[in-house]
Amino acid sequence: NESMAALALLAIAVWANAAMAGGSFLSGSLTWDRIGATPQLLSSSCDGLVAGGEGVFISNSDCARSLGKVVLTARVVVTDTAIGRTPVAGEQIVLTGVTLDYGDGTSTSTLTFLVQAVSQSIVGSVAIVAVQLVSRTFHSYEGLQQPSVTASLRSTVMKRFSRCSSGATSLCLAPAIDGSTVDSCGASRIDLAGTDVMFDTTISMLGCPTCLPGYDAIASDYSVFPATNHHSPSLAMFPVVTLPSLSNKTQSVSFILPGVDEDGANKAKTCVTSCTNVLTAWDVNSTSSDGSVLYCSSDPVASGSNQGQWSLNANDVSEGGGAMADLQGPLQGSSSALYLLRVKLKDVLGVSSSFEVVLRVCSDLTNFIADAAGIQLLSNQGLLPPVFVSLYPFHSPMPRRIECVVGAACSFEFAAVAYDSSDSSVLGRDRRCSWGLSDANTLGPQSSKCVDNMRILPAGQQVEVDVSQASIQACINSTYSRETNQSTCHVVEEVQTGTSNVAQRRVRVFGGRKVHSYPVEYDIGRRFSLCFQARACSSCCYGPPVCVSVEIVGRPPKVTSPVEIATCDRIVFFSNESAAQHVPGPAQRAACQTLSACWIENSSTSDSSPGFPDLPSSPAQYASNVEPMKYSFSAVDPDVGDTVTMSFLPDPSLSTIFQFDPSLLSTSPSTLHLNSSCNTSQPFLLQEACRFGSIFLNLTVAHKSGASSPLLFTSQGSSYFVSFAPDQTVCFLATDNQALVWGRGLNSSELRCHNLKFQGPPMFVTSSADPLQSPYLTSDANGFGVGVAQLETLVGQEVSFSLRARDPNTEDQVSILLMENPGIPANSRVTQVTCAYNLSSTGDAAQAGTCSDVSNRFSWVPPEDASGKTFRICLIAKDNSNQCNRLQSSELTGGGGRATSVGFYSHSLCVDVLVSPAEVTWLPGTAGSEQGEQVVIYVGCHGQFLFLAAAGRYNATILMADGTSLQEGMSFALAVLDNVTRGELTASMPRGSEGSSVLLCWVAAAVGTGEHTGLIRSQGGNLFTSRRCLQLQVQKCKYCVEAGESLLSKIKSFSIEVNWMRLFAMNANDDQDLHTQRINHPDLLSTQGAQSVINVGLSYEAKNSDTLLS
After folding, report:
1. In the predicted model, what is the mean pLDDT of residues 391-420?
2. Alpha carbon distances (Å) from 745 to 53, 223, 230, 265, 544
3. Which of 230, 336, 458, 875 is least surrounded by CB atoms within 10 angstroms?
């Protein structure tokens, strides 16, 4: 108790000394934020930030966007002597003697500060209580007509410490200046020791459009423009930074000043190394022309020696950003000496803010660097302080940058490890160790791995990590209690390791917030640094700080249509990056969903239903009018308040569909939202409907003569068909406006590229060399068949034609089908489909036995009853693809009625087969008549009668009509010559037939050919012609004498009583019969070589009174 009381008295005395000396200031800065650019963050009165703490905003702000409304933030760390007492975290304090000059002719001297944290530490032998204060002041610059103003904060109560002198025991500013050294900088140094604290910041004015500052290409490179410059750069650091002592200028120590700026990109898109968006320069005199080298801040040296230089070099954002401060010695100030470090931070548009912190040196520490290889000791004095590392999967450098995504918990882990730098260790002996897994099992104590060179701490000692600075960064209203290790901003949790030489911590970014313990939309674009320092015991010096840069990024828009599939890589990036550099290659595009670009026939062109034949007047299949394939590409942004804007990449080298003729393509002129007001200039209204956006693409799969088009008309030899252009690519972007909504950072985008595969049905292939290959009535200018072909044939004559169908998609299997409507003639034949030409001979389709170019043959022999009829045969081709029937999520139209679940159907091909009718006619010269021609014939004469018939292209036959027949002595012979059928009746009536009468009739009919030789009906349906008849009358008492026959001898055969005198008497007179021969002389009883008819008796017509006896 007595020792504790003594320490308390000592502390009171030291604080009194500090107060008497007038010094109280440790660290501070002045920054600004244009909150009028984000009205959703304004209070209901529109004159300050919305109440409720961090992460709170108004989704439908009643405040208008006002670019002149600014909040200035003053951050200072002072000893409690500036306050006159030790406050507690969370307390509100009004400091007198502090003036904030707004730079527009107005100022305020009443600033309320929030106590964010109170911590105690010892600098040398001096115990101090450091109080971290923050004050936010709202101010409006509306109507100010100038490009920028400079605001400043000045305090008469917060003074810098006095210059150190020999034997000083209170806190003072080094270097000490006395007569024992030569101060070569004395003439140029402006001594800030004991002066009032002053900070300034440059505020760009956006309320004056005509006086916006200019910018050069570098601003564009960072995606920062005057109209989006809403923040000053800022830097956060421990109020007292501890460094190892340096004996001369050959020694140097480095640490990072993690300056950040929330406007635009954190690096230029053209930058490769040492990239950052904050330029850090010394803000004191005696510097180089660019402000990066400071000449007069190390300890003075003896005459003839050169004083060390302090330099600032850009530090890559991956390593925390800002600047790397490299300080050359000598730095050997007394234990109570503090070195002043004051820098100016500038963004790419010249907006600046000043930052100040103090440094102290500790001779107990050894100088070192920890890089990607391991740890390297740079001096032989002191002990190595705990080094910040990642423990898993093995000891390695601690990450210097963390990216957190809105809406999800964000955490990271690190450890401070005490390594053994004594001469007994490999690290102490070799002055270095390397990262990696332990080699202790093989090398034992000789291992050079850092993990095998850990210090064993004395009992009661434990590595400690100071998280007071990190716990409250980026949370203006937050507080931190060192006693309870509780923060209302970030949570730093201890992870138990079971060893005293390792202190592991887990940081949950914004984990201390009460409403949302993770980043929310309010935080989008925020950039800040969390700094940590560690020591090996409570009385040990802290080592140099290590900072982790944290950036909060919004969730990028997510493409919802087409639906994402597992194999498709998601491509997201920020607006400072070129979309062209992210366009995926062929393999990546192939892993995403392939969209179908279907040939869609206009429904008014023809009946597109595959169940019915197409109209004969329909144009050729691929020459008909077509409708566009319609696509909808949609995206949603998961972040509240964001508006999604969608656009195509119209460069044909990126989206190759745009190489096609513009008449075949159309796109929506702008993004379509659920609410039409989304395209206004009021994004701060945070409308829910604006998170959803769509764009449309219409692509007509047609042929454009003389221009690039999806459909190609081509030929192969004498055959004409179509083919498709190779698969094309469409790329589109979904971009949010988070940088505009929240006034920080960059917009983000998702890029999606899809292959478009053209799809269409097979078509029948015509040939100019073979009109019976897929016959049509005629061909159009492209060689494609149109109309219904007409083929004429005969009964019994085979009609045959081939069919060839080809699909423009070579991987499809094509079939040729007969259509049930109108059907096919009985007994017709269709051969099996064979592969005409295998277009997929080297592809997977060929291996599966498919063929996209097939042929078969139709044949038919018409039977007799087909005469005069026309038979229509219709066929249709189809493939086996259902792609145009199965719509993807983004496809609004398919292939029309021809695209079905079982395949894509072609136009029908119809052929009319006309079986020639039989038109049988009697020809001139034909004997008889329809009623029966009366013909007298004589016994013994040979009567001959001709019947001539023709049936056009058919042969005719002549048949006895029903009910009539040939009599004895009659014969009928048929002969065909030159399609004329000749029938000849020969009648030689026998004796005994005298006086008889015979009716003979004939009909003519057509007969088929080949295997069908039956009778054929005529066009009118008649089987036979009209009859041709002869009424043969056999004359009595007359006889026909053949040529060369003796009449006398012939007459003896009739009656022995007849003598020549009687025969002469009956034929000597004219009997008025033209057929009988008159005999004038008895000697002429011979026919003398000619057939003659003679009378061999007299005919007597009986009277009523006559009897046979009388």
Report:
1. 96
2. 22, 9, 10, 6, 30
3. 458
Phi, psi for 360 (deg, rounded to 5)? -130, 155
Q: Can you tell me whether residue 254 is helix, strand or coil?
A: strand
Q: Both tokens of residue 91?
A: 């307390």
pLDDT over 90 for what percent of the chain? 60
For 108, the token pair is 């305020």
3-state secondary structure of 399: coil
Radius of gyration for the chain, computed over Cα atoms and rounded to the nearest angstrom? 58
Phi first, then psi: give them for residue 135, nearest 5 degrees: -135, 130
At which residue do the structure tokens 């269409």 appear?
760
| 180-189, 448-457, 522-531, 584-593: the lowest-pLDDT one | 180-189
DSSP state of 260: B
Joined together, the tokens standing for residue 30 give 């002045």
CA-CA distance, 1063 to 1086, in Å (whole number)? 12
Q: How far apart are CA 936 and CA 329, in angstroms?
A: 159
Q: How far apart are CA 925 and CA 931, in angstroms?
A: 17
What confidence tens digit (pLDDT) does each residue in 238-286 have?
889 999 999 988 999 999 999 999 999 999 888 889 999 999 999 987 7
What type of residue is 147? P
Are the C-beta atoms of residues 307 and 327 closer than 8 Å to each other?
Answer: no
Q: Are 849 and 799 in contact (CB under 8 A)?
A: no
The first and second tokens of residue 396, run together, are: 């390695």
- Residue 156, judged by CB atoms within 10 A of its CB (0-12, 13-18, 19+), counts as exposed
Task: List the structure tokens of 138.
Answer: 């709202």
Which residues does residue 559 pair with via DSSP β-bridges, in sequence order?
635
**Per-residue tokens: 414:** 């690190």
Residues 344, 351 contacting (CB under 8 angstroms): no
CA pair distance 985, 697, nearest whole angstrom: 86
In three-state secondary structure terms, 944 is strand
| Type of residue found at 413 | E
Given the DSSP bridges, would you call strands 719-724 and 766-767 parallel, antiparallel or unpaired?
antiparallel
Q: Reduce the DSSP state of residue 800 to 3 states and report it.
A: strand
Quick one: DSSP state of residue 686?
Answer: -
DSSP β-ladder status, 352-362 and 368-370: unpaired
* H/E run at residue 367: none
Type of residue found at 371: D
The DSSP code for 318 is G
pLDDT at 1044 over 80: no
Global pTM value: 0.80
- Residue 665 pairs in a beta bridge with 699
Distance CA 267, CA 278 (A): 9
Please tell me the distance from the alpha carbon of residue 489 to that of residue 1050, in angstroms, as a whole number. 154
What whole-number distance in Å separates Cα of residue 562 and Cα of residue 559? 7
Residue labelled with tokens 């990036």? 573
Q: Is the pLDDT of residue 925 over 90?
A: yes
